[in-house]
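Practice problem: predict the structure.
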Amino acid sequence: TVSMVNAGGDLDPVVGLLDANQQLLASDDNGGGSLNALIERYTLPYTGVYYLQAARYEGADRPPTRGGFVLVLAQRFD
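Answer:
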């Protein structure tokens, strides 16, 4: 599980999970509620190197956001 939560400012977090070739496997913008990002219970397809991409939402409907954030990577055991 990967979460990226706004910790200040008007940041609209976006988080991505990339493989060793930096190909996007999963991403989220608002799945964590209140504009926070969440990739929940994603199972990695193989052992190896992965990258997390922490970004902000940028769209034609609003100007770029900014601020602090907390990024959490957690393994679930259930």
